[in-house]
Amino acid sequence: MPQFYTLLTVKGEQVFAQAINEQRTIQITKLGVGDGNGQFVQPYRTQRSLVNEIRREEVTSIRVNPNNLNQIIIEQRIPENIGGFYIREIGIYDNEDNLIAVGNYPETFKSELREGSGQSLLLRVVISVASADSVELKIDSSTVFATREDVENLHQNLSEEIEQKINDIPNASIQQKGIVQLSNETNSDAEDKAATPKAVKDLGERRVLDADYSGNVRPYSIPVGGKSQFYRSAGYSKPADMQNAHNYGCGIAIRTGETNTGFADIYIPHTENRNAEIWVRNGYQGFAHSNWTVFKPLPEMTSEVNDNSQNKLATARAVKTAYEKATEAKTLAESKQSPATTLAGYGITNFKVQDDLATANLNDITTAGIYGQPYNRQATTARNYPVNKAGSLIVKPSAYGVMQEYISFDDKTYYCRNKTRDGWGSWQTIGADKAPLQHTHTVEQITGLQGIIPQFTQNINQSGWCKFPNGLIMQWGVSDQSDIRFPISFPTRCFIVSHSKTAWNRDTRIGNLTSNGFTSAASSHPGTTYYIALGI
Fold first, then answer.
1. Does the keyword field hold Nucleus (predicted)?
2. Please, which residues have CB within 8 angstroms of residue 327's CB and are 6 or more apart in sequence?
């Protein structure tokens, strides 16, 4: 056998066997590391925890070994800012925090950045299972780190795929979609080319200024106030005849009618709160202008279903999404209103509730559930009760079989035992080495205090002291003298003195602080000094 390896725990074997039998998958979610308490670790099947777990976090990668389909490769990357510990053991956990696999690891020290050297560490664990189909290959995407090899392989695959798709695209025409050739021409009749922004710009700069019947057009921008046979541009600055006139805008007057004696004015305001409004009016030579009519754009459309805006319109998609969400909520609510009054009504058939065990032997009660024993006379040691008292029995699965917990009805004593492949274990009293709930012990009866209490000594007077078990001494006193001595000397030194005077508006200070006392100075008569001192 190799020196370093990974194996399934007994719990892991049970979990995988049950998953295969029930045709469901297992979610492997976390990987833990430990330092083995500084010793080499030999993994074994019956482990229920690591020797000394240091860290447990989500796995960053899980996949099937392409060279061995019954092997699962699990990875976790520890970032450079995490460290300061050795790694000698590893553990794999499922989504119920069951330790399903353990392994030892070559002794590795994981440093962190604040130690002066930090780098990320990739842990890779391979476990063999009966069927990789029983493992759900799903991880938290927020914990995934891509290796350089992953990125390079993805880049190569995408480049090849993109190149192939480009080669498969045909040339575009008016009959089909495809790759379009660009052209700067402005007088071409081609139907398989697209105009560039330059071609569009060239056309946009051509305006009708002077037109003749030959169709020749001279490209030129019409200046403000300029005229042609067909157009007149108009630069407005707050038209006086305009309703709700604005400071800035631009417009155009279009001649109408066969004799060009009619016209239509179009005006667009530039102010921020009038963006995209279009004002229109018409008229005829010799007659007054008609009133301005404003055309406002439709509000902004949105497909969001959680937007609180009052100036947007919902799209059909938003309405459809809201309807579907409401339907889902209604269906879910109706599904939760089950008429079942028992656990079996909810599909739970492997749990039992029985209020009277009668004369049953507790060794035979192995179905998970809650049981009651209402009579003392039926709770006998011959029936394997821990105490001859009525009480409650709880049966639940354990690592190797089932566990029983019994609580007596009167003193609420808690008993526990396990059943393994070797049979039932003995009953254990939980908290048997602790004081009873109704204890009335005196201080002298409390274990462990006898050596501490004598270390508390004190002299309670107006000027006194108190010694604590940890060596700290607190002293206090009152004095009318400038040179003040402590009630007792500090064996080592005085840490701090705090004092106050009876009179006000004095400049007071402390000087000559020693283990025996201090000097209380004041700008005038010292008065009475009240002080407290701490030291050892």
1. no
2. none
Better-scored residue on pLDDT, 167 or 11: 11
Which among 90, 77, 122, 97 has a CA at the least distance from the CA of 6? 90
Both tokens assigned to 243: 């309703």
Three-class SS of 140-152: CHHHCCCCHHHHH
Return all residues near 160 (Cβ < 8 A) that are at least 6 apart: none
Q: What pLDDT score was predicted for residue 221?
A: 47
Give Cβ neighbours of residue 73 (< 8 Å, ≥ 6 apart). 61, 62, 63, 64, 65, 124, 125, 126
How is residue 179 annotated by DSSP? B
379-397: average pLDDT: 95
CA separation for the pair 180, 265 (Å, rounded): 40
* Residue 150 CB coordination number (10 Å): 12
**Among 530, 525, 533, CA closest to 488:** 533
Q: How confident is the model at residue 218 (pLDDT cuts 50, 70, 90)?
A: very low
Assign domain 453-535 one CATH number from 2.60.40.3940, 2.60.120.10, 3.30.460.80, 3.40.50.150.
2.60.40.3940
Q: First and final CA of the chain: distance in angstroms?
A: 61
Question: Residue type for 43, please?
Answer: P
Maximum average pLDDT range among 68-82, 90-104, 155-169, 182-196: 90-104
Three-state SS string across 209-253, please? CCECCCCCECCCCCCCCCECCCEEEECCCCCCCCCCCCCCEEEEE
HSE-up of 131 (CA within 13 Å, CB side)? Answer: 13
- CB of 500 within 8 A of CB of 530? yes
Euclidean distance between CA atoms 147 and 153, whole angstroms: 10
Confidence tier at 141 by pLDDT (50, 70, 90):
very low
φ, ψ of residue 92 in degrees (nearest 5): -110, 130
Angstrom distance (rounded) from CA 328 to CA 336: 12
Q: What are phi and psi of 322, to 5 degrees?
A: -60, -40
Name which residue leads in pLDDT, 499 or 297: 499
pLDDT tens per residue, range 251-272: 666 666 555 556 677 767 665 5
Query: Per-domain residue ranges for the chain?
Result: 6-152, 302-336, 344-429, 453-535
Structure tokens at 67: 């060279």
C-alpha–C-alpha distance, residues 9 and 92, integer Å: 10
User: pTM of whole model > 0.70?
Assistant: no
